[in-house]
Amino acid sequence: MSRRAAVTLLIVVAALSAGARARQRSTFRAQAQGVSVDVSVRDGNVPVPGLGADDFILYDNGVRQTITSVAMSAVPVDVTIFLGTNNQTASRQVETLSADLRRIAALLRPEDRVRLLTLENQVTDVFGWRRSADAGAGINVQIGGVQSLYDACVLALMHPPDPDRRHLIVAVTDGVEFGSVADSTTVREIARRAEAVLHLVVVTPVGPPPSATLPGAPGQAQAMANLANPVPNTTAAGYLFLRATWFHVMPDEQGLERLQEAARLTGGTVRQGTSGETLVDAFRRAFDDFRQSYLLRYTAEGVPPAGWHELRVEISNGRKFSIRARRGYVGG
Predict the structure, then answer these.
(1) Which is the most buried residue in 36, 76, 137, 266, by most CB within 10 A?
(2) Rounded to the nearest 5°, which phi and psi values hold at 146?
(3) Whole-number Å distance between alpha carbons of 30 and 35
(4) Quick check: 321 and 43 in contact, CB under 8 A?
(5) Distances in whole angstroms, Cα of residue 281 to Cα of each of 13, 111, 154, 260, 275
């Protein structure tokens, strides 16, 4: 993460702390253009196709709204792929990363865009936004080391897509966290405001990483204790120690739970990665869910613009489908 990005992140964290005391002053970028809501509708495990505006009932703070448009795959997509695994599968992932990105790009359309975030002692936006056709070109990354997992989540969620685009985040992570400026509460609060759908894939660590734990697990406190008296030096290990202890001196006991809640707040899913699952496999499952969901648009009426807006989406005529949608937004 560059110095400018780090400073920006600090400003964001400070602003969110102030916003917790005065949330009415927060803004939701889409408010001036109307509100967009991603909605997944399933009959059991099967997506329900062919629904229109009359098939949905949408409430904003309890007030029924008029849905002005319903779209599915026609809307261009910005895809953030978030790779943060601190275990023995990491080296295999890096070796196949370019090929994996090319395979992912083949699932997208020419107008879709891709970016890759990785964690290796910092959060790295590997190549910025690329057209899907160029996603696999010239990849040279490393992953592992100290992972600023929460910072990466914040940077991914902060991207404001253009009004005519959607933003999908596929985060593949083993949940290991040390050294972030942001905490898990901040990630959850940003998820409330984010114009993105976050799908979280949690893979099981298969080797002993430096932290050897998911956020909040009892082993994190012991890992921190082991770092309490390092041998002073100027090597990478010394840098890792500074990163690991500067921001997180206490374990975040609800860290993984808050990350999962952040995903659900956006209308995304949380699932456990399966054994031998590749990055392409994880992406395909999340992307299939995303492109088979609906994008509802409306202009909020009959409700004050400021503050938290709770959303509720139903299907008309009492049909019993499983519905997953973002839970609300912060208006200004």
Answers:
(1) 266
(2) -80, 130
(3) 6
(4) yes
(5) 33, 22, 24, 20, 11
Q: What is the DSSP code (8-state) at residue 139?
A: -
CA distance 268 to 261: 9
Q: Which of 247, 240, 205, 206 is nearest to 226 (CA)?
A: 240
Taken as a whole, the chain contains a residue count of 332
What tokens does 65 get? 């709204």
Cite the residue boundaries of each domain of the chain with CATH code 3.40.50.410. 75-291
281: tokens are 């496999």
Q: pLDDT tens digits for 179-194?
A: 788 999 999 999 998 9
The single-letter code of the amino acid at 125 is D
Look at domain 75-291 and name its CATH class. alpha beta
How do beta strands 113-119 and 67-71 pair? unpaired
Rounded to two decimals, the pTM is 0.75
Structure tokens at 57: 């009932």
Q: How far is CA 154 from the centre of its chain?
A: 8
Dist CA 5 CA 247 (whole Å): 17
**What distance in Å separates the CA atoms of residue 83 and residue 123, rounded to the nearest whole number?**
10
- The answer to whether 89 and 174 have CB atoms below 8 angstroms apart is no
Pairing of strands 197-202, 270-272: parallel
